[in-house]
């Protein structure tokens, strides 16, 4: 199973990051290479490599990721105008870090969601 401990180290405070929210289940921090004025990553505090590895016992953390996304969007002042939540899975999905995460992006109008290559 492909795993990446980069985000786990951030969750555990062992690697630097601009953390904007943390609780017992999830952590949210600013993306190191922002693609929009607001670009925050929301991750479960346990290492789930990809969406394919999600199990019923992860549902509390996954649900929390959604409520935290809305909370952080409000905190960032982008809730009213809107934003996008994205989770990439594996190579065709463009996943780079193998610790499940949601990108919260906003702060300006976003283009079409899907890009053809
Ligand atoms: P993916 O392509 O896996 O969906 O997205 C991974 C994201 O993590 C990318 O947007 C990348 O800029 C971000 N990223 C990778 N390494 C780090 C890191 O060490 N710290 C932070 N804050 N973001 C990272």
Q: Please, could you describe this protein's structure?
A:
The protein has one domain (6-99): HIT-like (HIT family, subunit A). The relative contact order is 0.23. The protein is of the alpha+beta class. It has a five-stranded antiparallel β-sheet. Helices cover 24% and strands 21% of the residues. It has helices spanning 6-11, 59-76, 90-93, and strands at residues 19-22, 26-30, 38-44, 83-86, 102-106. The mean pLDDT is 96. It binds guanosine-5'-monophosphate.
Structure summary:
Residues 6-115 form the HIT domain. With 117 residues, the chain is an alpha+beta fold. It contains 3 helices and 5 strands.
Can you give keywords for this protein?
alpha+beta, HIT family, subunit A, 3 helices, 117 residues, 21% strand, globular
Count the domains.
1
Strand percentage lies at: 15-25%
Query: What is the name of the CATH architecture?
Result: 2-Layer Sandwich
- Spell the H/E element sequence: HEEEHEHE
Query: What is the typical, i.e. mean, pLDDT?
Result: 96
Number of strands: 5
Question: What is the assembly state of the chains in this entry?
Answer: single chain
